[in-house]
Write a structure and sequence with these properties.
alpha+beta, L-fuculose-1-phosphate Aldolase, 2 domains, 8-stranded mixed β-sheet, 12 helices, binds zinc ion
Length: 294
């Protein structure tokens, strides 16, 4: 009997939830100190790689149960110190911090509240990804394995005022299927399993957009990853435990990436050139060409 009671007691003690820290205690906890240092480090990397300009860009991370640390507004992300960071709740209220939280925190919450796996969010204005965002284009697929495995299909959200409820509502349905989202006429926002992972998604997205933009100016169409080989990449992702909404079996992979990268199908242009040349030669043969030259 005594033994049963002891066991029950032990089980009850085990099931007891950890006492919840006050926001003040959470803000200065070892967990928060570690995450603040990470945010400052990633902020420096964003600025050094010229992914943010002026006081642009913002970073946030989950801390404790239902709280978030995020960067303040109005400061360069290259020169953050841990005491500048803000503690917010899941409604976007700032609880701690002498600096005002980023005005775009609502966009981060759209991701956190729709993707439980998202531990951190990183938003920046890297030149090449933002060039795609102002062109209203998503980067093509099937060109480089790394972006397929480590980022997946990049989405694009229509334009809305930064930090607005409208922007929040546009991002929320995209985030569960996309770790990297271009924001039209604005920049890119990515989520990851850590602050560094969210930053990696930004870095990979921008590097890929840069490569695709350069390739679009080269004189010939290149090759692409054959659609049937995409299953191998998705299988690698699966083994690495990386989520991907695309299914190797059901994905059509219809689009020729080179049509997308150049913004047109070269065969259509060639056909137009052929027709125009034929018509010009016909006109010259009729003597009209000479007439028009006089
Ligand atoms: Zn922004």
């Amino acid at each position: 009997m005594k033994k049963t009671l002891t066991t029950k007691k032990a089980r009850t003690a085990k099931a007891q939830p950890k006492p919840k820290l006050t926001p003040e205690a959470l803000y200065s906890s070892p967990e928060a100190q570690y995450l603040k240092a990470q945010i400052c480090d990633i902020g420096r990397r964003l600025w050094q790689r010229e992914y943010v300009d002026g006081n642009g860009g913002n970073i946030s991370v989950r801390v404790g149960d239902g709280y978030f640390l995020c960067t303040p507004t109005g400061v360069s992300k290259g020169f953050l110190t841990p005491d500048m960071l803000c503690l917010c709740d899941a409604e976007g209220n700032q609880l701690i911090g002498t600096w005002k939280r980023t005005s775009e925190f609502l966009s981060h919450l759209a991701i956190f509240n729709s993707v439980p796996e998202a531990q951190a969010v990183c938003h920046a204005h890297p030149v090449h990804a933002t060039a795609y965002a102002i062109a209203g284009l998503t980067p093509p697929e099937r060109l480089i394995p790394e972006i397929e495995v480590f980022v997946g299909r990049v989405a694009i959200a229509p334009y809305a005022t930064p930090g607005s409820q409208e922007m929040h509502d546009l991002l929320a349905p995209l985030a569960p299927k996309h770790q990297s989202i271009l924001m039209t006429n604005h920049g890119v926002i990515c989520w990851g399993t850590s602050v560094e992972d969210a930053y990696f998604k930004v870095e990979i997205t921008d590097a890929f957009c840069r490569t695709a933009a350069i390739a679009s100016h080269l004189p010939t169409n290149g090759t692409s990853i054959p659609p049937e080989k995409m299953a191998d990449l998705l299988a690698i992702k699966g083994r690495l435990g990386l989520p991907d909404a695309r299914s190797a079996k059901n994905e059509a992979w219809a689009e020729d990436p080179w049509t997308k990268i150049r913004g047109h199908d070269d065969s259509i242009i060639e056909e137009v050139v052929r027709k125009v040349t034929k018509e010009v030669l016909k006109q010259i043969g009729n003597g009209n060409g000479r007439k028009s030259l006089s």
